[in-house]
Amino acid sequence: MDILKEIKTVGQSLWLDSLSRDMLANGTLAAMKKNLGVTGVTSNPSIFEAAMTKSKAYAEDMRRLAAEGEKAEAVLEKLELEDIRQAAGLFNDVYEATGGADGFVSMEVNPALAYDQERTVSEGERLFAALARRNVMIKVPATAQGVKAGNALLKKGVNINFTLIFSPERYGEVVQAYVDALTWRAANKLPVDALASVASFFVSRIDTATDIELETLLDSDDSFETEELYDLALAARGSAAIANSLVAYGMYALIFSSKEFKPLRENGAMKQRILWASTGVKNPAYKDTLYADALLLPDSVNTLPEAALKAFVDHGAPVRTPLKARLAGAAAYFAQLGLVGVDFPAILAALETDGVEKFSRSNDVLLAHIEKMTGSPRK
After folding, report:
1. Which residue is catalytic, options 33, 56, 78, 139?
2. Mean pLDDT over the full length of the chain
């Protein structure tokens, strides 16, 4: 099976969920673009933590910037900006060839600002201007404040990657923020045809958290009144993430084919593509292409870490069940999950909070690393 051909036929984009100066310098990223169908890149504080703490490629620039009097925060930002610019340059031809629909590289605002709407807007606008490339997106965590900040940035013409989306309800808010921004721009005689956005809907972390809850219930002697409920809980493991993603995709397909969006589309506006994030399979008991197989869906983006990307291209087996039947199955799954006593909305809310905290910790580790390497203090 030629997976890359099928991906192209379906209309999905493969983005790499990784970035480092080494892969830019040694041609690894260029080779993935050429040979593995990669058409964009996403980054986040955890990705930069792995890159900068494990590679010597950043040391010289770290020390030079510190010697010039830059504080640790400024050193970190300048290193990140340089990597993002180089990656954006590599994928600019994809951006041009697709009329601005693909070829994007994403950089995240400081996750410490995830609950500060005004500062997120200020930082997002500043970073977008500093990068000065149309094929970059600013990643904004989709907290309640982040959704509002993303809306404000879109109105200013900043491409936005809404990240850390776990629930269909939050996804609906993100889509509305995008449509509202486009509508506002059109009403104010501002162009809408060059504005781009994706909604990063997280996948594997949901199975990890839900499976833990199910295992806790299964290990308890008094969790289930009947054997049937026990069997439902047993069968529910490893399915929450895909079912949740399908619910969101059903919303995506409905909204962007709606009468509300049609005038914007006719005015040149692009769909806000749904992006599957965290699609590397964390549980070794599950097939290593589980999420990529299930979420090869039209007009979507899948951002994968290198190992997951190579596995999918090598031996992926896309699910071929009709979407309508899969959406019905997702609805039935969540009805069952409720019957066995899993509070799924609470799991999703906790994952959003944990996601922000995880990225904030990575940012702190990076700043501590720069302090140690250079002696440059934080502000």
Report:
1. 139
2. 96
